[in-house]
Design a protein that fits this description.
This protein is of the alpha/beta class. It has a domain of about 110 residues: Succinate dehydrogenase/fumarate reductase flavoprotein, catalytic domain (Flavocytochrome C3, Chain A, domain 1), CATH 3.90.700.10. Helices cover about 30% and strands about 20% of the residues. The protein contains 13 helices and 22 strands. Strands 1, 2, 8, 9, 10, 11 and 19 form a 7-stranded mixed β-sheet that branches. It has a 5-stranded mixed β-sheet with strand order 20-18-12-22-21, with helices on one face. Strand 4 and strand 5 form a beta hairpin. The longest helix is centred in the C-terminal third of the chain and has 22 residues. The C terminus is likely disordered.
C-alpha cells in the first residue's frame, strides 16, 4: 500500500513525486519511458513574475485577459502568486535556465505585456526540466515503473484506492502482464490529448488516458470544448507537425501570407503577439483566402547568430528538413497543442472522487479559462502539484467544491447511436481525421453533430480492450465524443472554441460546461 500513486512523468508528475517522497512512499507509473512526455518537447519556457519590472498582479491580469472571461480568478491568483517560489524550487534543483549578464534571461511571448518567460538551452526548456527532475527523482526513493499502462482506477465505497495496469516492455504485446497497485492517494498527472487530432505538436503518448480514467471513475470533466491550436507548427507535406515556439515571434518574427504580406497588424493590436486563438484563426483565414496549406513565419530580418544561439533546437530541425531559417521563411500552419479543460479540481487538486487528485494538463483548475496564456502550462503543473502534497500533508483532504450554479451540467446518458458517418470500425487515423475536420479549429452544428453521432457509434461498437493500444483508442474515442458534446452545446465563440455558425462571444455563455457520467470502475473488493 503506497501513500501516493502518481500516474504520469511530465513536469506535474515528477515534481509532485519529488515533494511527496518527503512525506511517504511514492509509486510513479508511466506508460512509456520515464522521460517521454509533453514536457520534454516544450520549447518556449515557463512564465513567472521575477523581474523588477513585473509583478504577480500583472501576470494575473495577462492570464485573465487571455482566458476570455472564463478563468477562475482565485486559481489565477494562486498560480501567479506562487510562481516565483516554484521557480526557486527549480533553481535549487539546478535546472540550467539561460542567463544574460549573470541574470536570468527572460523571453517575451504572445499576450504577455512584459518579458517573464524563463528558458533553458535556448528553446529546449522542457528537455532540461525533464532531465533535471528525473535525475532528482533517482535519489528520492520513488519507485518508478515504466511501460506501465493504467487501465482502471479502482474504487471502494466511492473512494479511489488503487489502479489496475498492464505492464509490458512492448506495450502492444498480447503477452502483457496485468497488475494491481493500491494506495491512499491517486494523483493523475498524465498530460493532454493532442493525438485526438491528425495535426498536433504533441508526442504519441498524449492520448487523454487520464481524462478517460477519471471520467469512468465518476470524476467530473470541465471545459473540454476548449482546445488550443498552436498557430505555428512547421508544415512540410509528408512530415509530422513540429512546434515552432511562440518565442520566435517574441523575438521579432513576422507572419506573412502567400503574397509575402504581413497580416496580423490588421487583426489585433498586438499583431503577431496576440493571444494564440486569435493568431491561429487569422492564419486559418489567410489559408482559406489563398487556398494555400500554410502561411510563412519570417525571421530573415533578424540577426543570424541570434537565431542560431537562441533557437538551436528549432534551427537544427529546420536545417535537417532543408530550411535555413536565417534566410528561408518557414511554412507554418496551426496544430492541436493544449487542452484547457480536463478533470475538474479545486484549488488543491482534489476532484469530486475522494482519494483522486489531478494536476497539470489533465486537470481543469480554472487557470486557463477558454484560452491558455503562453508558458503557463509548465507552471501550472508545478504550482498545483505542490499544492496537492501540501494539502495531503498539512490540511487533510477533501473533494472539489460544488459546481457553480451558472454552470451547465451534462450527465452523459451514453445514448449510443447505431449509425454514423464514415467507417464503422474505428481506427486511430479515422478518429484523428474526424476530430480535425469536425471538432477542430473551426466548428459548426452540422460537423459537431456528425462527429457526435460517429463517435457514439464507435463507442458502441468497441470490444473490451485488451492491449495498451486498444485502451488508448477506446480512451480517445470516449474523450473525443465528450468534447464534441460540449462543443455542440456551447453555442457561441470564445477562446479556443470557435463556431462559424455562432461567431460572437455571448455573455450568457460566460459559464462552464461540466460533464459527468456513471462511475464504471469496479469496487476493489471485486479484484482478485
Amino acid at each position: 500500500m503506497y501513500d501516493y500513486i502518481i500516474i504520469g512523468s511530465g513536469i506535474a508528475g515528477l515534481f509532485t513525486a519529488l515533494l511527496a517522497s518527503k512525506h511517504g512512499s511514492v509509486l510513479l507509473l508511466t506508460k512509456a519511458a520515464l522521460e517521454e512526455s509533453n514536457t520534454r518537447y516544450a520549447q518556449g519556457g515557463i512564465a513567472a513574475a521575477i523581474s523588477p519590472s513585473d509583478s504577480p498582479r500583472i501576470h494575473f491580469e495577462d492570464t485573465l485577459e487571455a482566458g476570455a472571461g472564463l478563468c477562475d480568478e482565485r486559481a489565477v491568483e494562486v498560480l501567479t502568486s506562487e510562481a516565483p517560489g516554484r521557480i526557486r524550487d527549480l533553481l535549487s534543483l539546478n535546472v540550467p535556465f539561460d542567463r544574460k549578464d549573470g541574470e536570468l534571461a527572460l523571453g517575451l511571448e504572445g499576450a504577455h505585456r512584459v518579458r517573464r518567460v524563463l528558458h533553458a538551452g535556448g528553446d529546449a526548456t522542457g528537455f532540461h526540466i525533464e532531465k533535471t527532475l528525473c535525475r532528482a527523482l533517482a535519489h528520492a526513493g520513488v519507485e518508478v515503473v515504466e511501460s506501465c499502462f493504467v487501465t482502471e482506477i479502482l474504487l471502494q465505497n466511492g473512494r479511489a484506492i488503487g489502479v489496475e495496469t498492464i505492464q509490458s516492455q512492448v506495450p502492444e504485446s498480447s503477452q502483457s502482464q496485468r497488475k494491481t497497485y493500491r494506495g491512499h492517494r491517486m494523483v493523475l498527472a498524465s498530460g493532454g490529448a493532442g493525438q485526438l487530432f491528425s495535426h498536433t505538436t504533441n508526442p504519441a503518448v498524449a492520448t487523454g488516458d487520464g481524462l478517460a480514467l477519471a471520467y469512468r471513475a465518476g470524476a467530473e470533466l470541465s471545459d473540454i470544448e476548449f482546445y488550443q491550436f498552436h498557430p505555428t507548427a512547421l508544415a512540410i507535406p509528408g512530415q509530422p507537425a513540429f512546434l515552432l515556439s511562440e518565442a520566435l515571434r517574441g523575438e521579432g518574427a513576422y507572419l506573412r501570407n502567400s503574397d509575402g504580406v504581413r497580416f496580423m497588424q490588421q487583426v489585433h493590436p498586438q499583431a503577431e503577439l496576440a493571444p494564440r486563438d486569435v493568431v491561429s484563426r487569422a492564419i486559418s483565414a489567410e489559408m482559406g483566402k489563398s487556398g494555400a496549406t500554410h502561411v510563412l513565419l519570417d525571421l530573415t530580418h533578424l540577426p543570424a547568430e541570434m537565431i542560431k544561439s537562441r533557437f538551436p533546437t528549432i534551427y537544427s530541425y529546420c536545417k535537417n528538413a532543408g530550411l535555413d531559417m536565417t534566410v528561408d521563411p518557414l511554412p507554418v500552419a496551426p496544430a492541436a497543442h493544449y487542452l484547457m479543460g480536463g478533470v475538474r479540481t479545486n484549488l488543491w487538486g482534489e476532484t469530486n472522487v475522494p482519494g483522486l487528485y489531478a494536476c497539470g494538463e489533465v486537470a481543469c483548475t480554472g487557470v486557463h479559462g477558454a484560452n491558455r496564456l503562453a508558458s503557463n502550462s509548465l507552471l501550472e503543473g508545478l504550482v498545483f502539484g505542490a499544492r496537492i502534497v501540501e494539502r495531503t500533508t498539512t490540511s487533510g483532504s477533501g473533494q472539489a467544491s460544488a459546481v457553480s450554479p451558472t454552470a451547465l451540467r451534462i450527465n452523459d446518458a451514453t445514448e449510443f447511436l447505431k449509425h454514423g458517418v464514415g467507417p464503422q470500425k474505428p481506427s486511430l487515423e479515422a478518429l484523428q481525421a474526424l476530430m480535425w475536420n469536425r471538432v477542430g479549429l473551426v466548428r459548426n452544428e452540422r460537423g459537431l453533430s456528425e462527429a457526435r453521432n460517429q463517435l457514439s457509434a464507435w463507442v458502441a461498437s468497441l470490444p473490451r480492450p485488451q492491449t495498451p493500444a486498444e485502451f488508448e483508442l477506446s480512451n480517445m474515442i470516449l474523450i473525443g465524443r465528450l468534447m464534441a458534446i460540449a462543443a455542440c452545446e456551447r453555442r457561441e465563440s470564445r477562446g479556443g472554441h470557435w463556431r462559424s455558425d455562432f461567431p460572437v462571444n455571448d455573455p450568457n455563455w460566460q459559464r462552464h460546461i461540466v460533464l459527468s457520467g456513471v462511475a464504471a470502475a469496479r469496487s476493489a473488493t471485486e479484484v482478485r
